[in-house]
Design brief:
With 383 residues, the chain is an alpha+beta fold. It folds into three domains: 1-61, no CATH class; 62-243, 2-Layer Sandwich (D-amino Acid Aminotransferase, Chain A, domain 1); 259-377, no CATH class. Helix content is 41%, strand content 19%. It is elongated, with a radius of gyration of 29 Å.
Length: 383
């Protein structure tokens, strides 16, 4: 175990910005900050995915998954290296990793980067209603194993809209050796009605064919049947294989999660919002983003309504001098309304340009939207 001690880890990640150490009164935890294959250039670094030690004794108390990769993301997961292998394939769940340790006569729950948070609180809600599950976890952790669960919940939706809170056991890892031993406990798991992901036996082609037209599934975790008993540092071969459906939905979800409001507004004026929202299943995320967008859409429509009204009223004036005077006065009044209603100063030249575009029957709506977008992008318009 010398290769997994605190001094060795500290030396391994010294001055390395991609890995972080966190601690509380009882524990020390190490995890990676960037999900880049190139930073995992040693077996030890691949263990730093939430590995946890007792602060006082410096003992390893919880050993979650080592870092493994998507298909074709790393040399070991290139398709050419996988075609002759057979796998235990378990459904990949679209949730959050929760794992446990038993320390100082008490069970503790962790996530990869935290000791306690809303995810561990949700896990405790589930466990406290299921005495068999609680006893199962206590027995495993006291024997030196780390049970690894996926928490799925409608409260923490990522892409797939799960309807119930569940803790699903995805693996069991022996702390001392690093062995993955879920299959050794399957009878006990069955007797205690512990939830497991759906399980299959596939080669790579069969796994890809299985996922090809499947909806509402993230993918599969493939575990090489002939290597899963290997120990640290010779990791068993795990491969993440995402479904085409999930990749499409996840891209849309990630895009919507991270898109700034000015780009969201640009999609609105270009009539492209449906292209994003139609592929996102997370209703709370959609509601959040629409709430961010709403004041800018309302402001845009407010301007259009008032500028169209000004342009229509020009018709009652006979000569250009009168029209110009009316426009100038009307826009001054509109600027005062804007300042009063939205507490902002808006460029008069944009309003004037839009009025002229309306008179000349140009594409004034999109042009005004692009002007607003430009101001938002530069940070000059905040509502």
């Amino acid at each position: 175990m010398s290769d997994l001690g605190l001094p060795e880890i500290e030396k391994e990640i010294e001055n390395n910005k991609y890995f972080k150490k966190v601690e509380n009164d009882l524990f020390i935890k190490y995890y990676y900050r960037a999900n880049l294959p190139s930073i995992f250039d040693s077996p030890l670094k691949r263990e730093l995915r939430g590995i946890t030690f007792s602060k006082k004794e410096k003992d390893l108390v919880a050993r979650p998954y080592h870092k493994f990769f998507n298909i074709n993301e790393h040399e070991e997961t290139k398709e050419d290296n996988l075609n002759n292998k057979n796998f235990i394939a378990r459904e990949k769940l679209d949730g959050s990793l929760i794992y446990f340790c038993f320390y100082k006569n008490k069970l503790h729950a962790f996530t990869q980067r935290r000791f306690e948070n809303e995810y561990t609180q949700k896990a405790w809600e589930i466990i406290n209603k299921n005495k068999k599950l609680l006893k199962f976890i206590e027995n495993l952790t006291q024997k030196g194993y780390t049970p690894l669960f996926e928490l799925i919940s409608p409260d923490f939706q990522i892409v797939i809209p799960y309807k119930e809170d569940k803790l699903i056991l995805t693996e069991i890892r022996e702390n001392k050796t690093g062995k993955y031993v879920l299959e050794n406990f399957e009878n006990e798991i069955k007797e205690n009605n512990i939830l497991l992901p759906k399980k299959y036996f596939f080669n790579l082609k069969e796994a890809k064919d299985f996922l090809e037209n499947k909806d509402n599934i993230e993918g599969l975790v493939l575990k090489d049947i002939n290597s899963y008993k290997n120990t640290y540092p010779n990791f068993p071969l795990f491969v993440k294989l995402k479904s085409p459906w999930y990749l499409e939905k996840h891209y849309a979800t990630s895009y919507l999660s991270n898109i700034p409001v000015h780009k969201l507004f640009l999609n609105y004026i270009q009539n492209k919002l449906d292209d994003i929202f139609s592929n996102v299943l997370n209703s709370s995320l959609k509601e959040k983003k629409l709430k961010e967008l709403k004041p800018y859409v309302e402001f845009f429509e407010f301007l259009l309504e008032n500028l169209e009204k000004i342009s229509k009223n020009i018709e009652k004036f006979e000569n250009w001098k009168e029209k110009k005077s009316f426009i100038d006065k009307a826009l001054e009044d509109l600027l005062k309304k804007i300042e009063k209603k939205y507490k902002i100063t808006f460029p008069k030249e944009i309003l004037l340009e839009t009025v002229y575009a309306i008179i000349n029957k140009s594409n004034y709506e999109e042009n005004l939207g692009l002007k607003i977008y430009s101001l938002m992008k530069k940070g000059k318009l905040k509502l």
